[in-house]
Amino acid sequence: MSLKNCHNFEDFRKLAKKKLPSPIFHYIDGGADDESTLRRNTDSFNDCDLVPNILASVGNPDLSTTLFGRKIDMPIFLSPAAMQRLYHHEGDIASARAADKFGTFYSMSSMGNNTIEEVSNISSGPKLFQLYVHKDRSISDDLIERSRRSGFDAMCLTVDTLVAGNRERDHRSGFTTPPKLTLKSLMSFVMRPEWVFNYLTHKKFELSNVAKKTDKGTNIAKSVMEYINEQYDPTMSWKDAEYCVKKWNGPFALKGVMSVDDAKRAIDIGCTAIMISNHGGRQLDGSRSPFDQVKAISDVVGDKLEIILDGGVRRGTHVLKALAAGAKACSFGKMFLFSLAAGGQKGVEKLLHNMQDEIRRNMVLMGCKTLKEIDASKIIYRK
Question: Active-site residues: which are they?
Fold first, then answer.
């Protein structure tokens, strides 16, 4: 299989599986506990149907929208994702350039392998920085200040990772950051010589944005779960979130909001957006999917916040369903990480091109000239 023949999520996933050592592939692919929420994130889109209108003389539909104060060319963007250097040696740089080329947001993780400044220097496109509140508050303050100086347009605070979810695939595979060879994983790395060569001959693996603040997960082998449990503050509160909102003083989203009450409280502390997300099914297994909650949250706060559905998106029709339910845009992680592993920057560009084509084609089939026409009348939920 080649990148040219990657037409959908499963194609990118299969190609990534051929290129990545098993522990790293399963880190992307897996979820928490029994992975029921991981599956539900995508399955939930099948609980409703789109209702098209005919003879609408659509022509070439307008896919653009405004998010975080920036116009973007289509209502999708890349979710913040840690440690992209593991999936392709160009990591964050490849993803940021691809997003820039397609006129949409690149979201940078606190746990990126490139610095805030490096990404800012190579991309003039819309940029979102994703923040975690560390026990050492000076780390969070430093990330906010550097993002501001580097011209990032918006910030999101991830609030659903106070402790790491039980990601059993990582226990079985022995996944660590940076990768550490064990008897169990050795053959998997040996069978992926191209990945090993690129990993060893390019930039050293480190969590570049926090490397000067902490050596956890940087100079020693640590599992992601150990890093989260050691470094992130499990006592983070609404007061801490409000502090971050005020310190940033610009477009700001809470990522990990799943309830109507929390969405309303996000307004109270000054947020301009929320990302309805369960961390890709990697935290609380058995929780609702983001799509399950979009309508209920939008019905209450949709005119006061920009609502972003994060997670489970695999098709352009999923994006249209999310917009009809009340979201303004969608973001996704697994899908773009598989495309990054499959082909670096070209892989992410191929994915974004595929999604752009799907959204445009489906808008024509729906009889919608603009995204504003994709409203509640265009969707019916099954009983």
Answer: 279
